[in-house]
Amino acid sequence: MKHKLLLQLFPASLILLFTLFPSATRCQLLLSISFPKERSTVPLDGRVLLMISADSTREPRFQISDGPTTQQIFGINVDGLRPGEGAIVDSKAFGFPRRSLRDVPRGEYWVQALLHKYETFRRADGHVVRLPMDRGEGQRWNRAPGNIYSVPKKMLIDPGSSETISISLDQEIPPIDPPKDTKYIKHVKIRSEKLSKFWGRDFYLGANVLLPHGWEEHPNARFPLIVYQGHFPYTFSGFRETPPDPNLEPEYSERFGVQGYNRIVQEYAYRFYQDWTGPNFPRFIIMEIQHANPYYDDSYAVNSANLGPYGDAIMYELIPFVERKFRGIGEGWARFTYGGSTGGWEALAVQVFYPDEFNGCFAACPDPIDFRAYTIVNIYEHENAYYVDSKWKKTPRPGKRNYLGEVSSTLEEMNHYELVLGTKSRSGQQWDIWEAVFSPVAEDGYPKPIWHKMTGKIDRSVAMYWRENYDLSYILKRDWAKLGPKLEGKIHIYCGDMDNYYLNNAVYLIEEFLKNTKNPFYGGEVDYGDRAEHCWNGDHANPIWISRLRYHQFYAPKIVDRIVKTAPPGADTSSWRY
Predict the structure, then answer these.
(1) For residue 500, what pLDDT is reported?
(2) How far apart are CA 368 and CA 158, in angstroms?
(3) Which residues lie below 8 Å from residue 72, measured CB to CB, with a gap of 6+?
(4) Is 379 found in the same domain as 361?
(5) Contacts of 110 (CB under 8 A, 6+ apart)
(6) What's the pLDDT at 22?
(7) Which of 16, 346, 498, 510 sits a CA distance of 20 to 30 A from 490?
């Protein structure tokens, strides 16, 4: 009787289980993704991405993020995928936000697929790796020229069916036209000997250079150089020689809650042009670096075991080239650097690693500059990056918030989003580039993970490598006897105390050290914006959505003041001050 009762109850229990836990539903649905010979006659390596969207307003490839509005994506690696051969996405493919195809509710969706192409690199360290080379777009998988994709189609996705859906990657993203020079903006590109040797093929560095007003009319003048650090710039950003477009359709900025923000951006870009060409603006050369690479849209401007000697290549190849070509003074007292976020970390890093080569850094909302606060994680003490260490609880660590503290993404979500886009630190996203820059090389030739990408378990040996080589706060403290005399008065750090990515936590820690320095006292500035989000730059007079458009105007007076106070005897402080 007991066994008979169990048999009678089992089917109902099974139905209840499948209802409460859809992931337990058996999934036989297959999506076969292939490309025709018209797109390639040779096999291709890369990452096949399948997007499923309930939103018809844009192509699914432009709707993927780690935030609340993201649509669904799955990813699989392909090695030597031949023309006409199907790459199969099934229930085993890893997805975000839903982990498996079986978890997608049955329904009609817009479906699109894309192949993010990888190339083979035979590096000088003996490792052979497959990575996505930047092709002029700044490591954006959904816009990278040469990537092939399908036209979005509306179709029924039923995980419970045994159907095979075929998708053809019959479209190709076209090349990007190079930017054009103007009177003020010049674009340069050089082959880097250092990087070419490391990567085993020709590698290039570029710069977008903003020339001072009157550069042509003053051929005997030589100018200070400002290195404006930041993400990949197609051309010099925030500089517009014509008034805003009167026909520009106003767009709402969800981030700042401002209507018509696109027009505001144009207005302030034009104001910068007016200031730049006005009678009282300092005559500097400003350069933005183009250093996109196989891992990200920039290199973080330092030497790295995985990316190569970008720091030395920029400092000793690119910067001297720009100074020679455009009449820079070419000495450390006449060089400054600033930037925000990634650029903020880079500004402080190059000042620390090349202390004699710059006369000041202005680091706004810098990426983690103390790894005891790697955003919300202490990589030296915490056991897990995704969850608070606890025997009985499993509390997620937050990844992104607004100024009210409302969380929109967790660290686990942000990292799993990257894992879908690419394994082995190849997503081209934020956490993976930190790993690629800071980590040693693993046995397989790719960056050694700081933590397990699925579980978040931290590798303490990697953390110790990070500390010795890239923890800027630790390095300053460790080497202050040597660095202090070279950095006195040069370090300026700014951050909002409600930074979206908790970057203020690391600033608090480095400030604690700096304000207690002796022999010498650091003599710089650390400042915070009350309730300010990412990326506050020290401007208390304007809201963040305005101050972020005024980096050059805000820092220029500070730079001139520093030059006047510190220029060595006999230095040229006059030819460029016309």
Answers:
(1) 97
(2) 43
(3) 51, 52, 53, 95, 96, 97, 98, 104
(4) no
(5) 52, 53, 54, 55, 56, 60, 152, 153, 154
(6) 46
(7) 498
Alpha helix positions (H), 202-288: 261-276
- Would you say the C-alpha torsion 566, 568, 574, 575 has a positive or negative sign? negative
222 and 105 in a common domain: no
DSSP secondary structure code for residue 372 in this structure: G
Q: What are phi and psi of 439, to 5 degrees?
A: -90, 155
Question: Residue 392: which domain range?
Answer: 373-468
Identify any residues that bridge with 121 across adjacent strands, giving them in sequence order: 129
The CA radius of gyration of the chain, in Å to the nearest whole number, is: 26
The CATH number linked to 486 is: 3.40.50.1820
Render pLDDT for 33-87 as a digit per residue (tens, 0 to 9): 999 999 999 999 999 999 999 999 999 999 999 999 999 999 999 999 999 999 9
| Whole-number pLDDT of residue 25 | 56
Residue 225 parent element (H or E)? strand 225-229
The model's pTM: 0.93
* Chain Cα centroid distance, residue 66: 14
Task: Report if residue 43 sits inside a domain.
Answer: yes
- Hey, what are 345's tokens? 């970390």
Domain boundary, last residue among 104, 138, 172 = 172
Asked if 256 and 321 sit in the same domain, the reply is: yes
